Amino acid sequence: MEPIMAIVVGLLYAAAIYMMLRRSIVKLVIGLMLISNAANLLIFTSAGMTRGGPPLIPEGAVLPEGVIADPLPQALILTAIVIAFGVLAFAVVLIHRAYNILRTDNLDQMKDTDT
Amino acid sequence: MSLEVALPIIIPLMTGTLCVMLWRYNVIQRVLSLLGSLALLGVSIWLLISVIDQGHVVMYMGNWVAPFGITLVADMLSAIMVVLTGMMAVAIAIFSLSSASPSHERFGYYPLMHLLLAGVAGSFLTGDIFNLYVWFEVMLIASFALLILGGERAQMEGAVKYVTLNLLSSAIFLSAIGLLYGITGTLNMADIAVKLGAAENTGMVDVIAVMFMVAFGIKAAAFPLFFWLPASYHTGPVAVSALFAGLLTKVGVYALFRVFTLIFNQNVDFTHELLLWMAALTMLTGVLGAAAQFEFRRILSFHIVSQIGYMILGLALFTPLAIIGGVFYIMHHIIVKTNLFLISGITHRLLGCYDLKKLGGIYKARPFLSILFLIPALSLAGIPPLSGFFAKFIIIRSGVEASAWVVTGIALLVGLLTLYSMIKIWSEVFWKKLPKGQDDTALTAGKTPSSLVILYIPVVLLALCTLYIGLNGQPIYDLAEFSARQLLNPQAYIDAVLGGGS
C-alpha cells in the first residue's frame, strides 16, 4: 500500500506545483488546495498505515491487543483539513475581490507593487 | 501550575473576543484594545521574571504530562519575544487610537489585531511542533484579513502574493512535520530532539531539516523566497504594517532559532553552513533592493529582509557569542523597525503620501519629529552609541572569531549600505525643501493637534527604549547571554519538559 500512496502523494505535489506556476489566479488557488491535501496524505502515509487494527482497548483489558493503528496522525490530518478549509475559503474570497478590483485574473498583470 | 505561560495567549484571545462582542462600539473597542495590550505587557514581564528565576517554565495543558499532551514552554528566548510582543502591542494600540480609520474599525480591526497577537504569543510559547503549525495559521489568517483592510488595488495585489507564499510555506512545514512524525513518532519538540539523537536514517533527517529551513525561511522572508514581503507590507494600514514589520517575520526567525538549536543540531556542518549562505544572500539582496526604492515604507520593508540576514547569521555561526548577537539583534530590530514604520505613518499624516520625491521640509517645520526619526534610523545603520551598533558589533565580532571572513565582510558592507538608505530618507523626507505644489497645511500648522500628539507617544517611548539599550546595554546583554546559554544547552530544555508533572 505504501508505494502506491507514495506515488499518489508525489503526483499530487507535482500537480500542485504545476498549477501554482500557471498565470491564472484561479489555478493558483487550485494548486494551494492540492498541496494542502498532498501534505495531509503525506502525514497519513509516513506515520505508517495499519489495516484492520482500530485503536481500541478490549473491555477489561489495560492494553490493546496486537498491532493497532496510530490515531494521532488522523487527529493531525483532521486539524490540518479544517485549517486548510478556513484558509482556502479566505483565499477564494480574496481572488474574487482581487478580480473585481483589478479586472484581471492574470498574475503577470499584478506587478504594480513590485516596482 | 505556571499560569504566566498560558496568560500571554489567553489575554489577547479574550480581548479579541470582547472586541467582537462590542462590534458596534468603536470607542469601547479602542479602550479595550489598549487595556488588553497593557495586560499582555504586564503578564509578559511576569513571565520574564519567573523565567529569570526558574530557567524554564513549563505548563502541561490539561495536565497531560509530556510527551503526550500539548506543552507550553517558556525559556529565555520565548520570554524575551513575548515581552517584545507586549511592548509592540502597547505601542500599536496607542498609535491606533488616532491612526485607525472608522472604516477599518468597522471591519474588525481590533479583534483581528488581538487574534494576531495571540497567534504570535502562542508560536513563541508552544513546545509542540504541530501546535506551532496551528499558531502559525492563527497568526496568518488574522494577518491576511488585516492586510486587506480597506480593499485598495495595491492591497489586493500584495495580498495575493503574501497569501500564496505563506500558504506554500505552511504546506511545506506540514509536510516536514509529517515526515518527522514518521521517523520519531512524537510531536513534542523536546521528545523529538531525544529521538532524533538516536535516529539511524540521518540522510532523511537532513532532508527534513532543509524542509524546515525552507518553510521558516519563507516566513522569515529570507533569501531566496523573500519577495512577498516588499510586495505586501507597504500596502496595509500603517499601524498594521508596523506590527507586521516588528513581529511577523521574527516569528519565523524565532522558529529557526528554536528548531536549529534544539532539534537539528546533529549535522551542524551541513545545516548551519546552508543557513550561513542564506543569511549572507538575505542581507545583500535586501539592502540592494532598498537602494533602488523611492517609497518610504518599501525601503523599510527591504531593510527588514536585510536585517533578517543578520539574525540568521547569528544562528548560523552557532558560537555562544553569535547566538547572543542574534538574540540581541532581534530585540533591537523589533523595537527600531516598528518605530520607523510608525514615523512613516506620522509623515503620511502630515503630508499625505509615502513617495520620497513628493515629501520634504519636515526638519524645518517639525525638528522634534526629525530627531525622533534619526534615533531609530541611525540605530538601524549601526551608529554608536545606539542599540544597533552593539547588535552589529557582537555579530561581526563573533564572525571574526569564527574566521567567517566573507560573511563578515558582507555584514560590514551591508551596514554601510543601510546607512546610505537611511541618509536617503533623511535628505529626501526631512532635509530638502518641500516640492512645489504639495499641500503643507498640516505640516506648518502652528499648534500640534491632539490626534497628532497621540501618534507621537509610542514613537517617543520606542525611541527611549532604543536609547536605553544603547546607553545601558548590560542588562539586555545579560538577558541575551542567558538565552544563548539555554539555546546551546538543549539538554536543560529537554529535562525541564520531560522531567514530569508539577
Automatic annotation (TrEMBL), chain A:
Q: Where are the transmembrane segments?
A: 6-21, 28-49, 75-95
Where primarily located?
A: membrane
Q: Which InterPro entries match?
A: CPA3_antiporter_subunitC (IPR050601), NUOK/Mnh_C1-like (IPR039428)
The alphabetical list of record keywords is: Cell membrane, Membrane, Transmembrane, Transmembrane helix
The answer, when asked if Transmembrane helix is one of the entry's keywords, is yes
Record's GO cellular component terms = plasma membrane
Q: Does the keyword Cell membrane apply?
A: yes
Q: What subcellular compartments does it reside in?
A: Cell membrane
Please report which protein family the annotation says this sequence is part of: Belongs to the CPA3 antiporters (TC 2.A.63) subunit C family.
User: What name goes with this protein?
Assistant: Cation:proton antiporter
Source species:
Aliidiomarina haloalkalitolerans
From TrEMBL, chain B:
Q: Which GO terms describe its molecular function?
A: NADH dehydrogenase (ubiquinone) activity
User: Where does it localize?
Assistant: Cell membrane; Membrane
Does the entry feature the keyword Protein biosynthesis, yes or no?
no
Question: What GO cellular component entries does it have?
Answer: plasma membrane
Q: What InterPro entries does this protein's entry cite?
A: CPA3_Na-H_Antiporter_D, NADH_UbQ_OxRdtase, ND/Mrp_TM
Biological-process GO terms, alphabetical: ATP synthesis coupled electron transport
Q: How does it sit in the membrane?
A: Multi-pass membrane protein
Keywords carried by this UniProt record: Cell membrane, Membrane, Transmembrane, Transmembrane helix
Protein name listed in UniProt: Na+/H+ antiporter subunit D
Domain NADH:quinone oxidoreductase/Mrp antiporter transmembrane, chain residue ranges per copy: 128-416
Q: Which family does it belong to?
A: Belongs to the CPA3 antiporters (TC 2.A.63) subunit D family.
Transmembrane feature ranges: 6-25, 32-52, 64-95, 107-126, 132-150, 162-183, 203-228, 240-263, 275-296, 308-332, 368-396, 402-423, 453-471
Q: Which organism is it from?
A: Aliidiomarina haloalkalitolerans
